[in-house]
């Protein structure tokens, strides 16, 4: 059974640019959540999508946005990148959001 | 404010030296508590879910337990390959996001 796939694995962007990250969930999973992980703050929740609708949102600025497609694949976008956006971005999928969540390997974003 | 605290922040063990990691939580209600293992540069790997006080789950050298205010991850006779960061997360009610602790970084020395 294929796991959660995140692409790309690594990204280097310049301050002010925008970036799009992709997440393909486990087949049959309809909930996709995104997290930002930094050494100082740990894992922080960005947002969750279920059946193409944003169901929960964390406390991040509007520069962070996402969407989910009909096949449950999800993308997140960060506009006007700042140095502080450098982090490991993790995607997790679950069947419904109330069951165990399985994580992808993450996308390491470096903003220079 | 709902909070999850893990202790210790870091733990260094000799191979075969058993110990426990702690996850305490202050939430208004608990739907489930989750344990994950994370290796450097990788995503967290799911280990256990616990739903009610008194529940226990085991997997190889790991055993997770739950009380009304905290959870323990017991590691019996650890091996160097058990070295990782162990994360605890709680879910307050259905469809709410997981709230993570900052993790315990475990090093097992041969």
Structure description:
The complex is a heterodimer of chains A (112) and B (110). Chain A has 112 residues and is mostly beta strands. Chain A has strands at 5-7, 10-13, 19-24, 31-38, 42-50, 53-57, 64-68, 74-78, 87-94, 102-103, 107-111. Chain A is built from no helices and eleven strands. In chain B, strands 2, 4, 5, 9, 10 and 11 form a six-stranded mixed β-sheet that branches. A five-stranded antiparallel β-sheet of chain B has the order 1-3-8-7-6, with no helix packed on it. Chain B has strands at residues 3-7, 10-14, 19-26, 32-38, 45-50, 56-59, 62-66, 70-75, 84-91, 99-100, 104-109. In chain B, strand 4 and strand 5 (45-50) form a beta hairpin. Chain B has one domain (3-109): Sandwich (Immunoglobulin-like), CATH 2.60.40.10. Chain B is globular and about 40 Å long. The interface between A and B is medium-sized, with 27 and 23 residues.
Number of domains of chain B: 1
The 3D shape of chain A can be described as globular
Chain pair with largest interface? A-B, 27 and 23 residues
CA radius of gyration of chain B is 13 Å
Enter the CATH topology name of chain B.
Immunoglobulin-like
Task: Work out the helicity level of chain B.
Answer: under 10%
Radius of gyration of chain A equals 13 Å
Q: What oligomerization state is this entry in?
A: heterodimer
Terminus-to-terminus distance of chain A: 37 Å
Average pLDDT taken over every residue of chain B:
94
